[in-house]
Design goal:
- With 117 residues, the protein is mainly β.
- Helix content is 0%, strand content 49%.
- The strands form 2 sheets. It has a 5-stranded antiparallel sheet with strand order 1-2-9-4-7, with no helix packed on it. A 4-stranded antiparallel sheet has the order 3-8-5-6, with no helix packed on it.
- The termini are far apart.
């Protein structure tokens, strides 16, 4: 059997990413689809008023909101991102995520290669 680099999602099937996770009361739910030294791909579902506090990343983090709207704060600047919209949060800038309503997002983080370090 061939190596699977992307997990927790059917291969060779059309899938709605938003169907992979469901918001649960008082929680942030996530499902990792890929994780290695180069990239991380995760789908998240946030309940209303849940958040991921301020943190940093060594890679560029690209979020695409799948359902609802999320508030993203990047280096002190607030961005309200709606379903179908994408925001890139640059590497090494502090950022956070807040759910003013239930919402779902896809997060792709691309990490620096050895030549970039």
């Amino acid at each position: 059997m061939a190596q699977k680099y992307i997990k927790n999602i059917p291969h060779e099937e059309i899938v709605a990413l938003s169907a992979l996770v469901n918001a649960e009361e008082g929680q942030v739910v996530s499902k990792t689809l890929a994780q290695n030294d180069a990239v991380s791909i995760t789908v998240f579902a946030f309940d209303k008023n849940e958040e991921i506090g301020t943190h940093g990343s060594t890679g560029d983090a690209m979020v695409t909101v799948l359902e609802g709207e999320g508030k993203f704060t990047v280096d002190g600047v607030e961005y309200f991102v709606n379903a179908g919209e994408t925001l890139v949060m640059p590497a090494n800038k502090p950022h956070s995520v807040f759910a003013k309503e239930r919402f779902k997002m896809l997060l792709v983080v691309v990490f620096p290669g050895k030549e970039d370090q």
